[in-house]
Amino acid sequence: MSQRSSSTFENECQKPFALSSVFRPGLFEGRVAIVTGGGTGIGKAIAKELLFLGCTVVIASRKKDRLASGAEEIRTWLTHTGQQATLHVLQCNIRNEEEVKSLISTTVLTYGKLDFLINNGGGQFISNTAEIRLKGWNAVVETNLTGTFLMCREAYNQWMKHHGGVIVNMAMDMWKGSPLMGHSGAARAGVVNLTKTLGVEWAQSNVRVNCVAPGSSIVSPTAAANYGDLNVFDGIGATIPMKRTGTVEEVSSAVCFLLSPGASFITGETIRIDGGQSFYTTPTYSLPDSKPTDKYSWQSCFDAEGPEAAKSKL
Ligand SMILES: NC(=O)c1ccc[n+]([C@@H]2O[C@H](COP(=O)([O-])OP(=O)(O)OC[C@H]3O[C@@H](n4cnc5c(N)ncnc54)[C@H](OP(=O)(O)O)[C@@H]3O)[C@@H](O)[C@H]2O)c1
C-alpha cells in the first residue's frame, strides 16, 4: 500500500469539531434515521449532519470495531458542539435478510418510528471485468443492489407503508459504463432504476425515494483504504470540470436536502454530485487549464468564520 500524500486528507485531520450545516438548527428534531455505513466516510458525515440538525441516528454496518471508533468520534464531536442528539449503533450486514429485518425492527421498537433511511453502506473492488470471479461479482451486487432492496423493503413493510418516510439511496458515476468496476456499475444502475420504481409505487404511502450519485471523487480515507491505495484520489481533480475532488460534506448536504421538506415534491430522482465529471467527454472538448472552483466543507466554513460557522446559513 502506498503512503498517503500530505494534502489529500488535510480537511479530515484538522479541527475535528468543525461543522457548519447550511440547514436550520432543529430541522430534523423528533426524526429518527438509519444510516448504513454511518461509522466511516460519507456515511459518518451524513450521521453527523443529521445529529447536528436534531435527528436521532442509528448507524449500522458489519464491523464492530469500525462502528465503535466511528461512534466514539461522533460522540466526542457532539459533546464539543454542544448538540444534544441520540446516536445508536447496531451491527448489520445489509446482505443478510434476517439482520436487515432485525435492524429495522430494533430501531422501530426502540424509538417508536423510522422517518429516514439512508442506504449509504456499500463497496466494490477494482478489477477488469474479465477477471472478476462469481463470488466477487455476487458480493458486490448483493451488497450494493440487493442490500439496498432489502433495506428499502423492510423499512417500508415494517414502518413507512403506514406512516410515510424518506429514503435516500447511493449510486455512483456509472452513466457511461464503469471500466474496472463492472460489478458495481451494474449494481448502481440497478439502484437508480429501483429508486424510480419505488418512487412511483410508494408515493401512495407518502414515501419519497431518491438517490445520490457521487463521482469517484469524494475524498475519504476509508474509501481509499478499501482500494488499497491511499493516493487513489490524487490527480483525479484535474480531470473534473470543476478541477477538484469533492468533500463528504458535499454529499451529506445533498442527502439532507432530499430528506427535508424542501424536497417534498421530488421522488424517484438521482442527483449527481461529481463536479460535472459524468457530463464531461473528451472527443470534441478538452477542459481548459482553469483554477479549481470553491469547495464546500465544514472545515472551510470554520476557517472562514470561526466557531460561529456552526449556525445555519439559511
Ligand atoms: N467516495 C467516493 O468517491 C464514492 C463515489 C461513489 C459512491 N460511493 C459510495 O458511497 C458509499 C460510502 O462510501 P465512502 O466513500 O464513505 O467509503 P467507506 O468509508 O468505505 O464506506 C463504506 C461503508 O459501507 C459499509 N458497508 C460495506 N459493506 C456493508 C455491508 N455488507 N453491510 C453494511 N454496511 C456495509 C462499511 O462499513 P463496514 O465495513 O463496517 O460494513 C463502510 O462504513 C459507498 O456505498 C460507496 O461505494 C463513494
TrEMBL record:
EC number(s) recorded for this UniProt protein: 1.3.1.38
Coiled-coil residues: none
BP terms from Gene Ontology: fatty acid biosynthetic process; phytol metabolic process
Secretion signal, residue range per the UniProt entry: none
UniProt KW Hydrolase keyword: no
Cited function: Participates in chain elongation of fatty acids. Catalyzes the reduction of trans-2-enoyl-CoAs of varying chain lengths from 6:1 to 16:1, having maximum activity with 10:1 CoA. Has no 2,4-dienoyl-CoA reductase activity.
UniProt protein name: Peroxisomal trans-2-enoyl-CoA reductase
UniProt source species: Plakobranchus ocellatus
Organism taxonomic ancestry: Eukaryota, Metazoa, Spiralia, Lophotrochozoa, Mollusca
